Known about the structure:
The chain is an alpha+beta fold. It contains four helices and seven strands. Keywords: Transferase.
Amino acid sequence: MIAQIDQTNEKTARDIQxxxxxxxxxxxxxxxFHDIPHLSETIEEIxxxxxxxxxxxxxxxxxxxxxxxxxxxxxxxRLVVDPLQFRQGIARTLVGHxxxxxxxxxxxxxxxxxxEPARKLYESFGFQEEEIFEVAPGVTCTQFRLAx
Length: 148
């Protein structure tokens, strides 16, 4: 169900993009900010990403989480669920899986301050709000940290 996926593979990159764009459109609406970089990311840019991707797959890719690990800190870059699969526990399963794989590590993640579902999800795992920063005039993101 959850396994590492190879974003350098063109089909996989297309699958990532096919759920990433509609999911980030929803976050863009929540934030009132439509310049989220992942909205316009090309297949080639996805393929060149240096992030590690874990996919939640059944009949097809329903969600994924990506991260980079450096110096004992796991930085979550993306948590994406196909909007047709919202409220099915996929995001919770992906985050829980990643935390379980990297016990005794610190985690950081940023999300739109206005993205209440994402904020509540991270807080439910014990992530603590660390800072709020402005990404555009009047638009903020919140960084969370989980120290184990």
